[in-house]
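User: Predict the complex with iron/sulfur cluster.
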Amino acid sequence: MTTTDVVTKEITFRVYRYKQGDASPHYDTFKVPCDEWTTVLVALQAIRRDNDPSLTLRHSCHHASCGTCAMIINGREELACVVTVLDLGTDVVTVEPLHNIPLISDLVVDMVPFYDVLNQADRPYVRRSEFMPEAKPPGGIDFYTRYENCIECGACVSACPIKGTSEEYYGPAALAAAWRVIEEPRGRDPKAALDWVDTPDGCWRCHVAYECTEACPSGVEPAEKIMALRRALTRQKLGRLFGRRD
Ligand code: SF4
Ligand code: SF4
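Assistant: Here is the predicted structure with iron/sulfur cluster placed in the model:
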């Protein structure tokens, strides 16, 4: 075999299908020839192109920067753009939409509730950048950065068993964003962020299972940030108990 030979293998894709109003979602099966470079996202695009243009999926950057192609691949939250099909080591690949986020169609979920909570955690910072009238950012480009590393893909929310049982729970991404405000306020109010998480649906609801950290493709480690919030709140409460001022 020369270095230019390409090994291709036919892989079966079981793809979750749902359209608005469907009484019974189902899986459709497609066969896709995959080589060593074929990612799950590229295979799904091939299915759309060659087999079924009605397959709905979402993607943008193709290099793990935007978070829009997060989905469940063989039972795990992943970014489809960076999962190489043959590396999965199976002849059958099952692809499903994220859990715990309302489903719109096939593999596309409605991220509005995710952003609604995230914006509460990160409020003034995000909103100021969105409504800034000048084209030139007066605060520098950092002003437009949300919190480091998070690409807002929703994988952690999908993986969280508590989010699966409680819509009210803020969820790991928003709590990690709140910790970021405390860690580096940059003009935001850390006390307001701590007050926001100090509720039964905030950081105290987490059951410390760490699935969110496991699922995060971007190294945010939301579970560790939730524990940091709890420590900060505990210190604050103990300080009040013993008369210390924060
Ligand atoms: S550690 Fe907390 S937030 Fe993360 S998955 Fe578990 S319960 Fe959810
Ligand atoms: S914390 Fe990680 S998994 Fe959760 S939305 Fe951000 S990047 Fe995605």
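The chain has a mean pLDDT of 88.
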